[in-house]
Amino acid sequence: MSLIHSTLPAQEHVVLLHGLARSPHSMQKMASALEAEGYVVHNLSYDSRHHSIEVLADEVGQRIRECTASASRVHVVTHSLGGILVRQIQETDPVPNLGRVVMLSPPNEGSEVVDQIGDTWIFKKVNGPAGQQLGTSSDSFVNQLGAIDFECAVITGDRSINWINSLMIPGKDDGKVSVESADFEGVSAFKVVHVTHPMIMKKKTVIEDVIRFLKSGAF
Question: Fewest C-beta atoms under 10 Å: which of 91, 106, 136, 140?
Fold first, then answer.
């Protein structure tokens, strides 16, 4: 059943970008809900574990432009690292006709987990070059990006089942990113929900909020 009843033009597209060390499967529930609302959905895959953010953004940006060439408006919904890719894309080679962006648990100001264990062998093995760029220092990649200059909402979590990671993160967190680090200059809507980092994109109320923001610019 449709979450929010309205008719959309077929050329209004939504691109989904999964997070670090994840796959499009993690965004499939979101994709199905958006398709039910009448959007043309592109649930993209990218090799998040083996390339830098710069390389990933170049690749993903090109694919977005190709698959949305016929779109009158292009919205983007991201999880975690996906939000950082959108910021890099919009700074370097912007997507034409970008509409609204919703970032789920984005490390907009980095993650203290990367500060603490980013240099370990296992972290590098699992998360690759992009993961190492997500630290919180002032000279980290994410903190060299400029302010968000597109219409953007952030939804992040305050529930963690990873107590080891949470010990490294000050304040409330979702097991990977603190609530404070998810927010950033230029975000027009911000919401905290009681959900973990790996599951935020599957939560029904989050999906409903995503659809509301894409349609109205508000939750």
Answer: 91
